Amino acid sequence: HSASTYSLDILYSGSGILRRSNLNIFQYIGKANLHSSQVVIEAQGLEALIAATPDEGEENLDSYAGMSAILFDVQLRPVTFFNGYSDLMSKMLSASGDPVSVVKGLILLIDHSQELQLQSGLKANMDVQGGLAIDISGAMEFSLWYRESKTRVKNRVALAIVGSITVDSVFVKAGLEISAETEAGLEFIST
């Protein structure tokens, strides 16, 4: 009984340069909802790169591009791709094309151990562990030759749960092991 939705809002300047890209992913479980992730890429003052006319009131803005993210309703540290024209040129000449990671980590969701007394008098040991791996990254590329910009947002999530129940007696040892894992990824590219 769960569903996941996403939305992507893109705002361009009058000259067709990306101004803001906003990707939201919501998770609905029963009647509860969770803002599982939001990745926002913002840019300004890039019209000089393609000899375009800036929008009214934005003639003297410094070149800037950055990214911020929300993960499970928690605001993460923003990332700046470049700030100023000289910083942009130095990063364009030395860029590897690899996305910048906003968050990458492993979260322990459950670590439970319990001893159960069975009606037969035997004791069963139950152990359950579960983890979540997250990788959110983004990139912004510019081509002065083709006069275009490209943004790329990658979201990857993997969930793994392992568990076991063992019954240990003097004459026999029996058990049951379970494991489940899933991985999902979304990549949004806008040019």
Task: Write down the Rg.
Answer: 24 Å
**The CATH architecture of the largest domain:** Single Sheet
Terminal residue distance:
36 Å
Count of spatially separate domains: 2
Query: Which structural category do the helix and sheet elements fall into?
Result: mainly beta
Shape: elongated
Please state the oligomeric state of the protein chains shown: single chain
Mean pLDDT: 80
Q: For the report, how would you describe the main beta sheet? A: 6 strands, antiparallel
CATH top level label of the largest domain: Mainly Beta
Catalogue the unreliable spans: none
Number of helices: 1
The share of residues in helices is under 10%
Number of strands: 10
Verbal overview:
By secondary structure, the protein is mainly β. The protein has two domains: 1-94, Outer Surface Protein A, domain 2, CATH 2.20.50; 98-190, no CATH class. It is built from one helix and ten strands. The chain has one helix at 85-94; strands at 2-12, 18-29, 32-44, 64-71, 74-75, 79-83, 100-117, 123-143, 148-168, 173-190. Strands 1, 2, 3, 4, 5 and 6 form a six-stranded antiparallel beta sheet that branches. Strands 7-8-9-10 form a four-stranded antiparallel beta sheet, with no helix packed on it. The protein is elongated. It starts with a strand and ends with a strand. The mean pLDDT is 80.
Short description:
With 191 residues, the protein is mostly beta strands.
Write the layout of secondary structure elements.
Elements: E1 2-12, E2 18-29, E3 32-44, E4 64-71, E5 74-75, E6 79-83, H1 85-94, E7 100-117, E8 123-143, E9 148-168, E10 173-190
Antiparallel strand pairs: 1-2, 2-3, 3-4, 4-5, 4-6, 7-8, 8-9, 9-10
